[in-house]
Structure formats: C-alpha cells, structure tokens
Amino acid sequence: MSNHEHHETAHRPVQRKEMSRRQFLSYTLGGTTAFMVGGAVLPMVRFAVDPLLEKKGEGTWVKVVEASKITNEPQEFKFQIHQVDGWYVSDPELAAWISKDANGEIFALSPVCKHLGCTIGWNTKGKNEYDCPCHDARYTKDGKNLAVAPNPLDEYEVKVEDGTVYVGPIKANSRV
Ligand code: FES
Q: In this structure, are 46 and 68 located in the same domain?
C-alpha cells in the first residue's frame, strides 16, 4: 500500500451499521409479544405451582371439647380439620375417643381399627374394651391390641389450654 492510499483510508468517515426497518420491526414486535405472553403465562404457572409451595397444616391444633367434660370413661368427640393437599382443599370430620387415665391425664385415641380400618366403639359388648364390629378386634382403654389387630390404636397429640382440649397430629400409641 502506498503512502497516498494509507492516508485516504485513515480519513474515510466511520460507517455506522444502521438497523434496517425490517430488523427494527422484528425486534419491536418480538419484544412486545414476549412481554404479553409472559404476562399471561406467568400467573398461570404461579397458580399451578403455588399450592405445592405452601406449607401443609402440620402441627396445627384443633379445639375439640371443654376439659371439664372429659371423664375416665372414654367418649367419642367429632371435630373438623382443614387440609390442603396440593390443589385439593377439604374439611373432613374426624373423631377421637378421649378419656382420662388413672393419673387424671387426658389422652385421645384414633377410632380407626388397626386390622383393616373399620371404626371401633367403646364398650359395645359390655367388657370395658374397644371393640371393632368388622372382625371382632378388641383393645384396652389405652388402645392396646388384645385380639385380631396387629397393632395398638393410634393416638392423637393432646394439649389442654384455658380449660379446652385440643388435638394435634396423629402418632403411634405411646401408652402401651
Ligand atoms: S377391621 Fe377391625 S377387626 Fe377387622
């Protein structure tokens, strides 16, 4: 390259790369479309995923009955719980057999038979035991399995506050 040519190149004005009208329209339309689709889809994704991120109602206590009504003789009390399982929300009614032990401590047993899940009843045969009508399983007042059922009745967590009995999550029987 001669000196003259080099001189000309150095003084040529810098060429800007201009955006064509077509490119400008594609970018604008693409951006607007992405914004609108995002605005419509994100709430749906949030709606779909949200229940899975919510904490389950574990550890919640349900008010059941005044403590003064609890006797040594087991009585059945019904209560409702509020449960959220993914998208499914329900308020099933549950039951507990609640009584006092020899030390005056209140405890609550699940009414679900540990054989095949029928509902047990207290003293239905006059023997001061829990009996299951399905296949004759029997349990003591503490829920100890005496016949047919392989395990003791489950127990509810119990607390007494301001003269009221609350039941909490179900747990394995801790009394037998
Ligand atoms: S379900 Fe209770 S004895 Fe079978």
A: no
